[in-house]
Design goal:
- The chain is mainly beta.
- It has a single domain (7-123), classed as OB fold (Dihydrolipoamide Acetyltransferase, E2P), CATH 2.40.50.
- The chain is 3% helix and 35% strand.
- The protein has an eight-stranded mixed beta sheet with strand order 1-6-7-4-3-2-5-8, with no helix packed on it.
- The relative contact order is 0.23.
Length: 142
């Protein structure tokens, strides 16, 4: 099979209504290497670079999960854009976005879930989600 573990995907497919950064950039913690006293930052398996996470809010009313974490492997923490005047959160877009499926067993029954990674984060213009328009059907003639 030619598919890699990380499936390349576009920002528009994952977040068709746009997405907003709702927190700062955080270090991803390597729980296996960390102790109670000392937290150790996780590193990307492929590149060896430190991993950072950005929590984003998906305003799409159809989204199952409203807040998602996107991880970025980079030497230094990615810089989030400023929120536009009067807006609480900055709209963002991800470059080099990939999705990795996994089975989430934390609930009452296993379910398919997705982990997202990107190579960079940038500013995006806020999107307006439009309500779907009804299909126009020609009237039946007699």
């Amino acid at each position: 099979m030619a598919l890699s573990r990380h499936i390349p995907i576009t920002n528009e497919l994952v977040f068709p209504g746009g997405v907003y950064a709702v927190g700062g950039v955080e270090q991803v913690i390597d729980f296996e290497a960390s102790t109670r006293e000392q937290k150790v930052q996780a590193h990307d398996r492929d590149s060896g670079l430190p991993l950072w996470a950005i929590s984003v809010f998906d305003p799409d009313p159809e989204a199952r999960t409203k807040v998602v974490r996107v991880k970025i492997a980079a030497r230094t923490p990615p810089v989030l854009p400023q929120a536009p005047a009067g807006a609480p959160f900055p709209p963002v877009a991800f470059e080099g976005l990939t999705a990795t499926p996994y089975v989430d067993t934390s609930g009452s029954r296993p379910r398919l879930a997705w982990s997202f990674r990107a190579t960079a984060v940038r500013s995006a213009s806020p999107k307006t989600t439009q309500a779907p328009q009804p299909l126009h059907r020609p009237e039946q003639g007699g």
